[in-house]
User: Fold this.
Amino acid sequence: MANQATDAAQQDPDDTRDPDEARDPRDPDLEIEDTAEAEAEPELDPEVAARRTAALAHVRQYGDPVLRTRARSVDRFDDALREQVRRMAELMVDALGVGLAATQVGVLNRVLVYRVHPQAPYAALVNPEIEWTGSEAEIMEEGCLSLPAVHVDVERAVHVRVRAHDQYGEPVMIEAAGLPARVIQHEVDHLDGVLVLDRISRQQRKEAMRAMREAPSAA
Assistant:
């Protein structure tokens, strides 16, 4: 998922930056930027922009059938899985996103990574299940690394409880509210083959499709 709030500042919880072997995505000095792009967003530093472009080249874009495919449950918590998580986290950070699902990089397993706050370590959720959602909902603008130039208002639950495993196979339970809850819901949707376009009106969808057609390829 693309984070609108960070984008305005320099671009920020649903983009990815290109993998940099010398950096650990857990490094708190790495900044996450917004996936969403404002109509008049400031220019990125050339190095940051280059990393973002390289990272986005690894993210599947709207129209790719993998984005409409439901991911399969993970049953092996091995080094290959942990390497996948590490790579996804690097891409998310380099692409300036706050969340990334495995299907967005063409891998059909139920894995997502997210990091809402730049100073926090990233989190990985394997086989996430949203087992409870609160009754309160709110509408906020969302962007998506797989839908360039699309920023739409989406209604989601404010509070969620999620049961999952981490990349080492340890069970985790997360109670999230606000932006973290939104990001998790957005990424779980991806794992189910659901896009933000499915959660908006027909008119909004038409406008989003027009924005994608008119957007520069690197947006």
Notes: The CA atoms of residues 14 and 153 lie 15 Å apart. The domain at 4-214 is CATH 3.90.45.10 (Peptide Deformylase). Residues 5-40 have pLDDT under 50 and may be disordered. Helices lie at 4-9, 46-56, 79-94, 179-191, 202-214.
